[in-house]
Amino acid sequence: MKASRIFAILFIVAGTAVAWAVLGSALSIRSAQTGIQLNEAVSGNWGVPMRQLHPEIFYVSPTAANVRREIHPESSEIKVHLESLPVKKGLVQFRTYGVDFDADYIVKNPTPITQTIYISFKFPAKEARYESFKFVLGEKRTDKAPQAGKITDAVILKPGEELPVRLTYTATGMNEWTYSFGQGRPRIRNFKLAMITSFLDIDIPAGSESPTSREESGSGMLLNWDYSDVIGASAVGMAMPAVTNPGPVAARMTFFAPVSLLFFFSVIVILGAVRKVDLHPMNYFFLAAGCFAFQLLFSYLVDLIPAYVAFALSAIVSLLLVNTYLARVAGSKFARISLLAQFAYMVLFSASFFFDGLTGITITTGAIITLAILMAFTAKVDWNEVFKRAPKVAKVPQPSKLTI
Fold first, then answer.
1. pLDDT (tens digit, 9 = 90+) per residue, 66-113?
2. In the chain, what are the domains?
3. φ and ψ at 390, to 5 degrees?
């Protein structure tokens, strides 16, 4: 094989890499613009990350230095059900969820005199929609309207008297749900929160406490936070499972594609030289175009159908384009080798982008295996003879002579 032919192949790889770079940049821009445009729309429908605050309970003491005296519930028993409901919009998938909140508190008058106790709940998101909402103080269900994002009601309690308070609602949010004890990290007694999730992938947000116990419950998890007496307790929270954003995944696959093509062409060139199959640079041009069709088709299909289906269809189209062409050019045996190589470098390497953290090790492993295979198959090849060999020229059939 002549050096000029190798340079021509490298030029084809470089040109295809430029085309992939343009496509990847377009995908990145589309994903960013789509995310910005749709984030507000999805937030309007599903809400924002929800942060439920511990109830504010206080009484007014005009003779004390602090007119407003804060107290905390004697006990808190909370049940939370979180269901992951990711929403796909174009090239972006949002981590949305539904939450069922059911809390029972015991409020006590800690003073030796009858007091008016005020109980206030701040909604986790001002503009969210709350269904099945109940705020019950003893046997009285409050009908007050929220003001400034919270609802406040009052009861009169005798010295040492206790009152059950219940709060329930169903709502939706994005990314994560948190239960906060407020500023100052107060002392929390007799607090129990049981959380049931519809997913197994547990992710505790930064600044939140890990559960005191956990166990699988059907297709999800049952998590418990049980504090008998804790000073400085952090928030309780849960982040929704990670979702595959088709746009960024397609962009990363596209930017990475030139590396796959270089591996693929290396195998074709070396094994072609060993098997005496001398492809013309124009053949490599069409092979590169067939490989480029994979990312091109995937980048537009992923906007219309599920990402894994789009990936499978795009991979099949590209494999058929490249290997049916090689079968006609170099024969079916060589096309079978090409099929395995393209599947390994273009399909499997690209599939690793669906799994965070596996791309690097996949590329490294593939490169080492490729090196081992090529070294084994070419160990006894006389490369001086290979590169001296003149390219085979196809015989053009001559027209038969007419005999009169």
1. 578 888 889 999 999 999 988 777 667 788 899 999 999 999 998 888
2. 3-32+245-388 (no CATH), 49-239 (2.60.40.3680)
3. -75, 145
